[in-house]
Amino acid sequence: MGFEVIAKPKGGNIDRMAEKVFYESINLLGGLKKLIEYRNLTWLPSLAEAAYVIVLKNEAMKTYGEIARELGITEQTARSIATADEEEVKRYLEGELEDRPREHIAGGIAKLAYRKLKEEGKFETEEVEIKHDELEVLDVDWAVHVLARIKGLDFPANRDALLERLKGLIIKGRNIEEILEKINYPVKTPAQLLHEIKTHLNFF
Amino acid sequence: MYKYYELRELEGRAPKLFGIPTGTRLDELFYRVEREGERYVKKPLGGIPHLAVMNITGVPDTGKSLLAEQFAITQAGNGYRVLYVTVESPAHFLYTAIKDRSEAMGIDFSKVESNVVVIDASESDELRENPKALMETMNYAIREKKVTNTIIDSITGLYEHKEMMARQIVRQFFNFMKKNRQTGIFVSQKRSAQASESAEAAGGLAVAHIVDGTIVLDKKLIESRWDVNLYGLPLGSVLRTIRIDGCRIAPHDSRVWVFEITEIGTIELIAPLSEYIRRGGKGVEAGR
């Protein structure tokens, strides 16, 4: 064929974009060390999920139904994340509000991060990173990697299906194979998978 | 972050108004008005307006893709780079269609094929369902291949099963075309429930309000004695019509025109419908 045919995308990778939003969300919160100081590491799976929702909604133009199916969350959760009032969340994080707002906190943070990346033109070009040594020590970006690998997997999922997607992954120095031996099956949603992994990491 | 302009600041940025030929008589239907002495005269643009994003819409089998392909062949044959995003038909089918038609139109196919870049979204879920991925890929093609004309056939295929997202998706692609200074054609499918004369005919829920202009293709089956007498066509034949349904960039003929799809698959405009009826349908092959 004489035409030049391009059949594969040259960018717009959802996983990569979600990672950028995730990392920028952590940066907005003062970096990982601050999260540890305030014992807020439990936010990370929610932040990863919110980063995906924001990217799928704003960049991939997915409906709430599609996002819910893809991430294994409810449509209402997807909607709450995507419509969170990021300014209200910002005021809460800065200590201006006494009471926790009704907004989805992780959703608001991910929206702030997404907006910042877009406004600064970093979303299209630059890599967004958090400090490498922090990542190396803490291995906290595992939630993003888990979500990226299980994209499109049907839930509920059994051990074999999860193992096929996740094999080789090391989380906080533990092989995923070892972790998957200890969690409860069937895993009903990606959110439950993250929760199970997090719970069992604490036992090691 | 917010910008505003005084009107005179925009003078240097305003695009020149000239036509980009489609290879059909449609080119004569867009015009500009120039002052000559005391009077104003209409001068044909010779094509769709430069940097316009035009929507071609119609029910199935009205010639939308043929018109888009004819535009691509004409531009590529003239030495301009064309990006053809095929969402419906796989690239190898497009290749055959464009090759056959180029030869029938007497245009050097080697020139056409060297100037057309195709993004095949028909066989890639990621390209079809992730607008960001498609725009990044289009951006690559436009930048690397120095493309000036872009066709998306069809834009409707990018929001199948989720028409509630249509406005956002079309707006993103429209903005993309403007940012990248493309003269463009979006092919969109008209739903059969919408009357051809209605506003919805111009591309359903979203497209017509966002793009610079719309060209509506339609067909009428000759099915009664009344039709036979009115159009001068035999029973069972098809009358094809084309109409420019608004263009915000250039003035245009707004009449319904009769056209035919020739045996070699090209679009040939015959006459305005009123004139066509007046002369009893002359010039149209029986059976079409």
The beta-strand count of chain B equals: 13
Mean pLDDT of chain A: 81
Helix content of chain A: 55-70%
User: Which bin fits the share of residues in helices of chain B?
Assistant: 25-40%
| Beta content of chain A | under 5%
The whole-number mean of residue pLDDT values of chain B reads 88
Given as residue ranges, the uncertain stretches of chain B (5+ residues, pLDDT < 50) are 284-288
Superfamily (CATH H level) name of chain B: P-loop containing nucleotide triphosphate hydrolases
Largest sheet of chain B: 9 strands, mixed
Strand content of chain B: 25-35%
Which overall shape of chain B is indicated by the principal axes computed on the Cα atoms? globular
Low-confidence stretches of chain A: none
| End-to-end gap of chain A | 57 Å
CATH class of chain B: Alpha Beta
Written account of the structure:
The complex is a heterodimer of chains A (about 200) and B (about 290). Chain A is mostly helical and about 200 residues long. Chain A folds into 2 domains: about 15-135, no CATH class; about 150-205, no CATH class. In chain A, about 60% of the residues lie in helices and about 5% in strands. Chain A has helices spanning about 15-30, 30-35, 45-60, 65-70, 75-80, 85-95, 105-120, 130-140, 140-150, 160-165, 175-180, 190-204, and strands spanning about 5, 170, 175. Chain A has a two-stranded antiparallel sheet. In chain A, strand 2 (about 170) and strand 3 (about 175) form a beta hairpin. The longest helix of chain A is centred in the first third of the chain and has 16 residues, at about 45-60. Chain A starts with a strand and ends with a helix. In chain A, about 40% of the residues are buried. With about 290 residues, chain B is α/β, with parallel strands linked by helices. Chain B has a single domain (about 5-280), classed as Rossmann fold. Chain B contains 9 helices and 13 strands. Chain B has helices spanning about 65-75, 90-105, 110-115, 125-130, 130-145, 165-180, 205-210, 225-230, 275-280; strands at about 20, 30-35, 40-45, 50, 55-60, 80-85, 115-120, 150-155, 185-190, 215-220, 240-245, 255-260, 265-270. In chain B, the strands form 3 sheets. In chain B, strands 7-6-8-9-5-10-11-12-13 form a 9-stranded mixed beta sheet, with helices on both faces. A two-stranded antiparallel sheet of chain B has the order 1-4. In chain B, a hairpin with a 5-residue loop joins strand 12 (about 255-260) and strand 13. In chain B, helix 1 packs across helix 2 and helix 1 (about 65-75) crosses helix 3. The longest helix of chain B has 15 residues, at about 90-105. The termini of chain B are far apart. The relative contact order of chain B is 0.16. The chains are: A mainly alpha (about 200), B alpha/beta (about 290). At the A-B interface, strand 1 of A face helix 2, helix 3, strand 7, helix 4 and helix 5 of B.
